Amino acid sequence: MAAKEIDASEEDGDSPKDEVSLEPSSSNKVDIGSQSSKHKRKYGSNRGGAKHIARYHDRHEDYIPVSPQHLRELSTFGWLQEGAGAVGMFFFSGAFWLAVTVAFEHSKELTKYTDWLFVCFLSVIFGIALIVIGWTHFNMKQLRIRELLESGNSEDTE
Length: 158
Prior knowledge:
This protein is mainly α and 158 residues long. It folds into 2 domains: 1-41, no CATH class; 68-157. The chain contains 3 helices and 2 strands; from the N terminus they run E-E-H-H-H. Strands 1-2 form a two-stranded parallel ribbon. It is elongated, with a radius of gyration of 35 Å. The two termini are 57 Å apart. Mean pLDDT is 75; it is low at 3-17.
């Protein structure tokens, strides 16, 4: 293998002038990665920035086969849960704070606004119902995932 020399000097004279060789037995040249003590003091031990040093660790994983039907089922629970919960929170929070605002701003003539307060009350109940539906779908999804994990663990013990 032919030796490759790299001149690391700069014009301002701040960096060291090292010759680098790919041959390990070269006596008058510096190995790749070595730096002069002046360069280490001035720039630190890293030349040109941060280094990524990989450390590999042994790892053992368990895999559980999941059918496409199970994945479809879980994805259906996901959007139903999130959609129902979001719409339920919208109805609940909006109607609740509208009812509070109407009650405080029109407390002297509250009898005029009883119909609107009743609509707010119905919207709050509708919002709570949607939140409960979203929570139920969340629990169904969690239960299904637990069942899949337990079925995978029971196959390992057999």
